[in-house]
Amino acid sequence: MSHGPSASGGALVAAPPHGTHDDAPHVPVFVDHTRAELDRILSRYPTKQAALLPALWMLQDARGWVSEGGIEEVAAALEITPAYVKGVVSFYTMYHQHPVGRHFIQVCTTTPCNVCGAEDVVKSLLQHTGCGDLGLTSADGRFTVVEVECLGACGFATPIMINNDFVESVTPESVPRILSELK
Amino acid sequence: MGYPHPSHPRETPILSKYFGDPAARTLAGWRARGGYEALEKALHTDPQELQLVVKDSGLRGRGGAGFPTGMKWSFMKPDGKTHYLCCNADESEPGTFKDREIMRWTPHGLVEGVALAAHTIYAQTAYIYIRGEFTEPYARMCQAVEEAYAAGILGENAMGSGKHVDVHVHRGAGAYICGEETALMNSLEGRRGNPRIKPPFPAVAGLFGKPTTINNVETLAAVPYIIKHGAEWYRQYGRPDNPKSIGTKLFSVCGNISRPGNYEVALGFPFKDFLYDLCGGPLEGREIKAVIPGGSSVPILTREEAEGAFMDYEGFVASGTMLGSGGVIVFDDRQDMVRQIARLTRFYAHESCAQCTQCREGTAWITRIMERIRDGQGTAEDLDTLVAISDGMTGKTICVLSDSCATPVMSGLKKFRHEFEAKIAANKSVVTVPGAFRASAA
């Protein structure tokens, strides 16, 4: 799924990730307690490469997205090539390959949710976040809304994920209240 | 208990007994409910003996394929090699959300099942691979594992048995295909989640190239009960006339139904009673039109077919479909089947790992054609093309994602052909002259 901002975005822009630009000076990801945490994870596997998904999660938690620079840090920490890491990153939908809004909202629209009206929830979210279209970030940098394939909460249609949190049984009408509770 | 609603009197809550009971989540709470007794017993029992008990119990894989668990475990011999156990918690099959509740409510039950299975297959290390989106189940499992280590249940001297059992929780990052067992192993090794060609099978060369057993969450969660109460006890659950489907099964129910949620019934339960008594039937004023009984990859049933089915491996096959993962998706009379089947094919097109041509191209072509028909731009020829592509996608690839995409299309075309034809008949942009070229204004 492409989360990329479309060329027709107009005033809508890709927001900086949690206030951090990739080219801004920053502390390396894998230092101090994060380095210790990575070492702890590495001890669970017979290869360093097996810690790649966990390491990418640590990177994304720290920076908000997975940048070229971040990929190089992960590659160095695990002694694999950046090209290899990039190949893995691009396979999985949950690593953001570009900055996203502060509240990254994934809406399930796969069949079980679809028959319960998930597409109307998408419309309501796009309207109330001001994102304009799927994959775009609102001008204030607060929201990005994307469609996602089956979140595995089909009995609670329509589930949405806001960053790491599930919100279940969302309806078009409940969207404004849910959004108002976010900063 | 029960979640999100109390257990129905006709349910047989074993795995789901503590769903909705937050006190069962902690180590103390789990022990107070009899937890870890089976593991303690097992750690002092010879693995061969445990393999036999599980074989005798008739337990079969609950993830979709239904492979006999005891037989799978018997492939693992005391050969002195490093063995691994993988617990498949990548629950991603549309319509399925049972493993999620097992992990959310009874995380120690799964830790116990995983540790027990690891010992039984001569593995020192087990990994629980949880789909990336399951943030709460992930946190619950991490906490349970941590508690188990702190209490000496896991580690170098598990429960004082002298056996070394390590359990680690590993988080995925968003990919349906990682629920395929060899794709899961690749993903766990830090690779793209491409399924591997078999053979070699995981029991010979699996995770990190070592003999590996991989089981679904629900399968592993059932094992402690079998070890505790015995194979005979487990065999009481099922249809008396079908010895091939034994035990209880969690069914997730979603879509256009009055009471969606998880239900645990003895295998062989009549599907009609299940849909109307337990799940409350269709929403008021509506009728059930179609049901997918085992996750989106199994053939669609009409209402009549569903009402005559029995909920076990053989029962669903006799009705022309499969038990699969037990994800029941209900469609009512408002639903446009062409639209919904098109949405399913889009799912598979999105999730194809793209290494096999038939799948990479086939899922995309099928989706394009299905969406064209959905949008009133289809032609009669498209129906033949769908059949031809589906045929080219079935039984020809490394894994069954490709087959799974063709399944709803083929069963949909067979059972709801009139809906496809009505959309095509309404397509005014096409002029069809028999025996001549087709002209489309679209």
Number of strands of chain A: 4
**Can you list the strand order of the major beta sheet of chain B?**
6-5-11-8-9
Largest sheet of chain A: 4 strands, mixed
Distance between the termini of chain A: 27 Å
The number of distinct helices of chain A, counting runs of at least 4 residues, comes to 7
Can you offer a commentary on this structure?
The complex is a heterodimer of chains A (183) and B (442). Chain A has helices at residues 32-42, 52-63, 68-78, 82-89, 111-114, 118-129, 175-180; strands at 103-108, 143-148, 160-162, 165-167. By secondary structure, chain A is α+β, with helices and mostly antiparallel strands. In chain A, helix 2 runs antiparallel to helix 3 (68-78) and helix 3 (68-78) packs across helix 4 (82-89). The longest helix of chain A is centred in the N-terminal third of the chain and has 12 residues, at 52-63. Mean pLDDT of chain A is 89; it is low at 1-21. By secondary structure, chain B is of the alpha/beta class. The model of chain B is unreliable at 438-442 (pLDDT under 50). Chain B has helices at residues 27-32, 37-43, 47-57, 69-74, 98-105, 107-120, 135-150, 181-188, 217-229, 231-235, 271-278, 303-307, 313-318, 337-351, 357-374, 380-393, 401-415, 417-425; strands spanning 84-89, 125-130, 166-171, 212-216, 248-255, 261-266, 269-270, 288-292, 301-302, 310-311, 327-332, 430-431, 439-440. In chain B, a hairpin with a 5-residue loop joins strand 5 (248-255) and strand 6. Chain B starts with 26 loop residues before the first helix and ends with a strand. At the A-B interface, helix 2 and helix 5 of A face strand 3, strand 5, strand 11 and helix 14 of B.
